[in-house]
């Protein structure tokens, strides 16, 4: 978070929006990967022998990892939005106090 020489925290809305856009792009990439892994697993389940079973097992692990990463990215977006909103509300509250003096 950028700070001024006085130590004040400065929230840059454009930077926050850019960060959220990058995170959403990453989520789209993860979802594309998830779809590919699910197709691979579906095809592997029709295979006979240990190779198909191994692919199914590993693809299930990858699906779980991707879902976990997506959940964490969603939580990150929510945290960024919450922090930005809190600072905006705090700015409004302080401005109101200053103007009432």
Protein described:
With 101 residues, the protein is mostly helical. Helices cover 82% and strands 0% of the residues. The protein has 2 helices and no strands. Helix 1 (13-45) runs antiparallel to helix 2 (50-99). The chain is rod-shaped, with a radius of gyration of 22 Å.
Summarize this structure as a short list of keywords or feature phrases.
101 residues; single chain; 0% strand; 2 helices; mainly alpha
Set out the fold topology.
Blueprint: H1 13-45, H2 50-99
Helix pairs in contact: 1-2
Please give the largest β-sheet: none
What is the subunit arrangement here?
A: single chain
- Terminal Cα span: 30 Å
- Parts with pLDDT < 50 across at least 5 consecutive residues: none
**How much helix, percentage-wise, in residues?**
over 70%
Rounded radius of gyration (Å)? 22 Å
Number of strands: 0
How many individual helices?
Answer: 2
Q: What class would the helix/strand composition place it in?
A: mainly alpha
Basic shape: rod-shaped
* Proportion of strand residues: under 5%
Mean of residue pLDDT values: 91
Element order, helices and strands? HH
Short description:
This protein is mostly helical and 101 residues long.
């Amino acid at each position: 978070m950028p700070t001024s020489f006085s130590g004040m925290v400065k929230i840059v809305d454009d930077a926050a929006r850019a960060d959220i856009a990058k995170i959403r792009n990453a989520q789209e990439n993860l979802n594309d990967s998830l779809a590919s892994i699910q197709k691979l697993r579906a095809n592997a389940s029709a295979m006979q022998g240990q190779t198909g079973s191994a692919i199914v097992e590993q693809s299930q692990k990858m699906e779980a990892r991707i879902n976990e990463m997506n959940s964490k990215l969603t939580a990150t977006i929510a945290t960024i939005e919450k922090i930005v909103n809190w600072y905006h509300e705090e700015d409004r509250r302080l401005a109101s106090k200053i103007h009432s003096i």
